[in-house]
Specification:
Helices cover 12% and strands 40% of the residues. It is mainly β. It has helices at residues 2-7, 79-86; strands at residues 21-23, 32-36, 41-45, 49-55, 60-66, 69-76, 90-94, 108-116. The protein contains two helices and eight strands; from the N terminus they run H-E-E-E-E-E-E-H-E-E. It has a four-stranded mixed beta sheet. Strands 4-5-6-8 form a four-stranded antiparallel beta sheet, with helices on one face.
């Protein structure tokens, strides 16, 4: 009887997946990688990307080298971001919105920090 009672209620909406970025579809090859930082947007031409390294841990760190810049991307489960870079299909990357930071599963980008390769941070 209880099931019939609930049948008239619409199902609860599924949570929206956190938006950490945009990946191009098959056949598309972006010419630029856009980084959506908290205070600005940086665009890096793909041809300037020389390498990237993923260090998994309690907090994953994905480090990108482009021209004279070092980009440190911090977060959780960043392998899909690395895979999109490997495939040359990452269009944009942004820090995950605050409301999604508490989620226990999935890719979360907590910060994107740009610095000069010559800085001694």
């Amino acid at each position: 009887m209880a099931l019939k009672h609930l049948a008239h209620k619409p199902p609860a909406p599924l949570p929206v997946a956190p938006g950490w970025g945009i990946v191009a579809t098959d056949g598309e090859s972006p010419g630029v990688l856009r980084l959506e930082c908290h205070d600005r947007t940086e665009s890096l031409p793909y041809h300037t990307l020389t390498r990237w390294t993923l260090k998994p841990g309690d907090e994953d760190v994905l480090t990108l080298h482009a021209g004279g810049l070092v980009v440190a991307v911090r977060g959780r489960e960043l392998a899909p971001v690395r895979d999109a870079l490997d495939a040359g299909r990452l269009v944009s990357l942004q820090a995950t919105e605050g409301r999604y930071l508490a989620l226990k599963l999935g890719t979360v980008v907590t910060s994107i920090i740009l610095s000069s390769e010559n800085s001694h941070d």
